[in-house]
Amino acid sequence: MPIYTPPLRDMQFVLHEVFKVTDEFKAMPAHAEVDADTINAVLEEAGKFAAGVAFPLNISGDTEGCKLDTATHEVTPPKGFKEAYRQYVEGGWPALSCDPEYGGQGLPHTVNQCLYEMLNSANQAWTMYPGLSHGAYEALLAHGTDEQKKTYLPKLVSGEWTGTMCLTEPHCGTDLGMLRTKAEPQGDGTYKLTGNKIFISAGEHDFTENIVHLVLARLPDAPKGSKGISLFVVPKFKVNADGSIGERNPIFCTGLEHKMGIHGNATAQIAIDGATGTLVGEPHKGLAAMFVMMNAARLGVGNQSLGLTEVAFQNALAYAKDRIQMRSLSGKKAPDKEADPIIVHPDVRKMLLTAKAYAEGARALQVFCTLLLDKAHGHPDEKVRKDSDELVALLTPIVKAFVTDNGHVATNACMQVFGGHGFIKEWGMEQFVRDNRINMIYEGTNTIQSLDLLGRKVLGNNGATLKKFGKLVGQLVAEEGVNEKMAEFINPIAYLGDQMTKFTTEIGFKGFQNPDEVGAAAVDYLRVAGHLVFGYLFARMAQVALREIAAGNTDPFYVAKLQTARFYFAKLFPETATLMRTARAGSKVLMDADAALA
Fold first, then answer.
1. Catalytic residue (choose from 138, 310, 390, 443)
2. Most buried in the list 111, 143, 239, 377, measured by CB within 10 Å?
3. 443 a catalytic residue
4. What average pLDDT score do residues 190-197 get?
């Protein structure tokens, strides 16, 4: 059976020592009173829930899956899931980072992100039920009417109701401009919706008395394409004027997808047969409103892979220390045993350190991004809000794609550490691999994220936001450039930072002449950008560790942090050279390949 220990020490390091989040919060009126002791106490309790309640249901939930009653359209999730959700609600966890006006606790997004990392390590399939509600909450908070906020937000915040996002249709995935679901105005401020949706995570379950579906649809006069999409809130049960549950709305689960992983989550096919809904935001502007939810979900998907990378690493490390096999190439390390533990073998250590580095880099990036979100939402200085919003927009596709790609590498490496036992279900490793695989696909495939990064976020504003991130790198280089002990961490990011400007300009010029050049380079480009971001964060973590050691701190944690950073820069970061070469190879070998693909 697998194990899981919440990585509280590393979270505290990133929060308090690297980013000094409480100092940042002091500048935000809503969070000015949040101190380190409060954050640590909350995360300690969150870790207990994740490890003690959600984690024991992970394998059983995967084995059992969800069951649909085709007569009633009701879905029963795996045993224990509903009870775990009840405990989650009783603990006040849904309200953690929500607005106190609607019953929330008002803690920063940064704290909520750490809660969700632990929940995703414990049980990604279960975590998706409450996780999607946060996106629905954010979309309605930003674009809902006063009546919609009054009706839905307190229930979503308390966890009494959950939310979903209904985008995808059978004939279209990412290309939402092709969607066909219709919304007919009824003359009383409501709309009658008709259509079919697929791949709706947590689309039906028995956790709560109501489910709040956010549905994309077209009005009768809608322009073609993505400019003709509107957003509607369509509850499973209609809500009476006094807030009580009304009659059943005809929005039904008609099927459950049989999936590679996340079996414990109900991935629903939804039929909408004249269901009543209300418009969220302006007509034909639904995509902008839904993007609030989608961007939150993209950061959340990166967090899913961070969680799985961490738990896979923990299990692979424990196994490598215990499993004996062969002798070390440099002589016996455990002479009292028949063979040495496999952790003495160089390639096993490489696989373990790969997972550890990708977990620690992702954790730093997630905290960095959610701190930017907190600034974008709550900082009194308009320039700080604007800069933070631009940076998090730039980093969102990197979080979604780079972290999930790395999660794929890491979970597979950790399964490999187990050898044949990794392929066997009882150890739990193959489930981590299967569960992670969807993270590279949903909420916009990683190629879509790469096109978004290069096409929209970088070339779309002539690299202005990329330059803002480059300034952060430049500040660190200027600060530590003469420190010999930091050279192994600073020199690589200084060099790549300089290369990035030339690399971006070159791809942009080629793309101006032939747009396929952007498509051919985008995936490689995102990975280069991801390594630049990770490199910057690892350099900052190494900076803190070196200062602590120089001050006489003998905690081995700081030595471990330096060793992980050295591994990252020596073995993973150099991938950037190959990626830039393959990106520069251009589109011709791809587009002039009709015979090969005939």
1. 443
2. 111
3. yes
4. 98
